[in-house]
Amino acid sequence: MQTIICSHCDLVSQKPILAPGYVAKCARCERILYKNKAVNANKLFALSITALLICIPAFSSPLISIHLLGVTEEANLLQGAIMMIDIAPLVSFVVLFCAVVAPTLLTVCIAFSSGCVVFNKRPSLLNSVLKLTAILFHWSMLEVYLVSFMVAVFKLISYADVYFNSGLYFFVALLILNMTMLCEYSNTKYWEYLRNE
Length: 197
Ligand SMILES: [Zn+2]
Fold this sequence. Notes:
It is a single chain. The protein is an alpha+beta fold. The chain contains seven helices and seven strands. The chain has helices at 41-60, 77-83, 89-118, 125-136, 142-156, 166-184, 187-194; strands at residues 3-5, 12-14, 23-25, 32-35, 64-68, 71-75, 161-164. The strands form three sheets. The chain has a three-stranded antiparallel beta sheet with strand order 6-5-7. A two-stranded antiparallel ribbon has the order 1-2. A two-stranded antiparallel ribbon has the order 3-4. A hairpin with a 6-residue loop joins strand 1 (3-5) and strand 2 (12-14). The longest helix is centred in the middle third of the chain and has 30 residues, at 89-118. It is elongated. It binds zinc ion. Zinc ion binds next to loops.
């Protein structure tokens, strides 16, 4: 019989045998211990490759144009974060990490692990990729960036003419792909695959 450790309170229990779609809860803290989620690796592989392609225009195309006093300025996500390096280096680092580096790395990790399942490979690197995926899961915050970006845009509207550009549509598409991927993904199932269970 396999054991499982609750990630919230460290209680060690026997791993339950669950029907697909069912959830086991911890006997002590009653938080979710284990989900028997059906994972479609083909779908995740396709979603992650599409997300990686959309990352390029989402991060490099202008999100908005600002027209003020006869001058029009465009800004994309990377420019916005880099421009803040001198004024607020910590904020700039957090924006770059949570809105660019973490989501991109997470997508690469999911593409790699899903590709391994699709092509039935178990490289030694998969172990580290699955560990990294679990860490990055908490740091990918595209939705937080979008909400704060929209708040800033609505404040700017009072002072200047603001126009939405193609980068914003790519960014929203990337966000939808990213959220779908995270809902579909199960780190536990991929570990089971790696251990050949
Ligand atoms: Zn617990």
